[in-house]
Design brief:
Shape: globular
Oligomer: single chain
Strand order of the largest sheet: 1-2-3-4-5-6-7-8
Structural class: alpha/beta
Order of helices and strands: EHEHEHEHEHHEHEHEHHHH
Largest sheet: 8 strands, parallel, barrel
Radius of gyration: 18 Å
Length: about 290
């Protein structure tokens, strides 16, 4: 089971062409491993999956897997609102050597719970790689209910869920009723510590892009049941958990990673760079985490 601080990795882009900046991507992988991150998610929401074409999507995953070279596990974002496309992306990630795939609920379509079950079942049966469900109704207009998650958890290669609602009652239910070996990951940095202390397995994190060492330490403390240490560390991270969402993700986090000198602050339309009015706010949150 993959546990701990799992970085929802940004995808660096050149400022002029907005093509993927491959050297910067490789440097980010190395930096996160050096900083103690436990795993990386390539081409999730934070990686601008919505604006990469299928070829780019597959190549980012391949490059991240290759650069990591087995030092930490790599999770590939391969969700789509077309089941056929999700199967193609998931197979591509498996072929590239990814350790697992993360599949967001089909956005825009608004499927029924039965439709969700059959979608994920079809992908799991088509591709043998370990698969992690991803529920983020605030972005997808689609909420996968705990009953559906638990039903899917009976499928051998569906091994966990990234639950991004921030609903601790729901998280508690999933943790209590899940089968052995089924992982519950937070997808909400602000409540991740609480979820891990109640028995969750890690945090698929936006904040970890900016503060990987501190996030890794906080997750390790929470997973060990050390509430005092986890709380102390998380208090430094709390302003980042809040202010990295002052505009839609990944707008603020890309600005913050660029402030660290690691990438260019470049996003593809319809995403735009962080408004100048928010620069000081995010910079102040970075100071709280002792990053600047």
């Amino acid at each position: 089971m993959i546990t701990g601080s799992i970085v929802a990795l940004v995808t660096p882009m050149h400022p002029d062409s907005l093509e993927v900046d491959w050297p910067a991507l490789k440097r980010l992988v190395d930096w996160h491993i050096e900083q103690g991150s436990d795993s990386l998610v390539a081409v999730g929401t934070t990686g601008e999956s919505a604006t990469l074409d299928v070829g780019e999507h597959a190549e980012v995953i391949r490059v991240v897997v290759e650069q990591a070279a087995g030092r930490i596990p790599i999770i590939a974002g391969t969700g789509a609102n077309s089941t056929r496309e999700a199967i193609v992306l998931t197979q591509s990630a498996a072929d590239a050597g990814a350790d697992a795939c993360l599949l967001v609920t089909p956005y825009y379509n608004k499927p029924t719970q039965e439709g969700l079950y059959l979608h994920y079942k079809a992908v799991a049966e088509a591709v043998a790689i370990d698969q992690i469900l991803y529920n983020v109704p605030g972005r997808t207009a689609c909420d996968m209910l705990p009953e559906t998650v638990l039903r899917l958890s009976a499928i051998d290669n569906i091994v966990g869920i990234k639950e991004a609602t921030g609903d601790m009652q729901r998280a508690r239910q999933l943790i209590a009723e899940r089968p052995a070996g089924f992982a519950i990951y937070s997808g909400d940095d602000a409540t991740a510590r609480e979820l891990m202390l109640m028995g969750g397995n890690g945090d698929i994190s936006v904040t970890a892009n900016v503060a990987p060492k501190l996030m890794s330490q906080m997750c390790a403390a929470a997973l060990a049941g050390d509430a005092a240490t986890a709380g102390e560390l998380d208090s430094k991270l709390a302003p980042l958990h809040r202010d990295l969402f002052v505009e839609a993700n990944p707008i603020p986090v890309k600005w913050a990673v660029a402030e660290l000198g690691l990438i260019s602050n470049s996003l593809r339309l319809p995403m735009t760079p962080l408004s100048a009015a928010h620069h000081q706010l995010v910079r102040s949150a970075m100071r709280s985490a002792e990053l600047v």
